Amino acid sequence: MMSRRNFLGGTAVAAALAAAGLTLRGKGASADDAASPAFEITRSDAEWRSQLTPAQYRVLRSHGTERPGTSPLNGEKRRGTYHCAGCDLPLFSSETKYESGTGWPSFYAPLENAIATSEDRSFFTVRTEVHCRRCGGHQGHVFEDGPKPTGLRYCINGVALSFVAAEA
User: Fold this and answer.
1) Catalytic annotation present for 155
2) pTM more than 0.70
3) What integer is the mean pLDDT of 119-143?
4) How many domains does the chain have?
5) Per residue, what are the HEC states of the chain?
6) Mean pLDDT (whole number) for 45-55
7) What CATH number does residue 135 fall under?
8) Which position among 84, 87, 132, 155 bears the catalytic label?
9) Residues of the domain holding 59
10) Per residue in 69-127, pLDDT tens?
């Protein structure tokens, strides 16, 4: 039988891991593991590490999460397109971006043929993971609490994105 102390201790550990941006997938788990599907763009671990910043690598390749409120893209208001920081595939239009109050860039719809999803069972729950359909880079998660017209909230790590402003 689990005691209150053990339950609270386990909850505290899980919360600390989440705050640190870690998951319970295991060290080194990445979108290009053997069990993952093949993607158009594949690179070795060394190639990904040399191309990405440490923060980008942790999110895109190790399924990490950036701390809420830390992305400069939260305040981005210009017209443009948000691309995968791993392979530069356009993923989201600024027209679908909205302020969700979560601390991460949020969108109610991706661009057509831009993302893929998979089941994420980390942190003792089931969520829908969003990843780039071309390189498999982890972007974030999608939830069913967004605005109309889709009712979806694509909660995306800003470090997994690059922004390309529309020409004036």
Assistant:
1) yes
2) yes
3) 90
4) 1
5) CCCHHHHHHHHHHHHHHHHCCCCCCCCCCCCCCCCCCCCCCCCCHHHHHHHCCHHHHHHHCCCCCCCCCCCHHHHCCCCEEEEECCCCCEEEEHHHEECCCCCCCEECCCCCCCEEEEEECHHHCCEEEEEECCCCCEEEEEECCCCCCCCCEEEECHHHEEEEECCC
6) 97
7) 2.170.150.20
8) 155
9) 4-165
10) 999 999 999 999 999 999 999 999 999 999 999 999 999 999 999 999 988 787 677 88
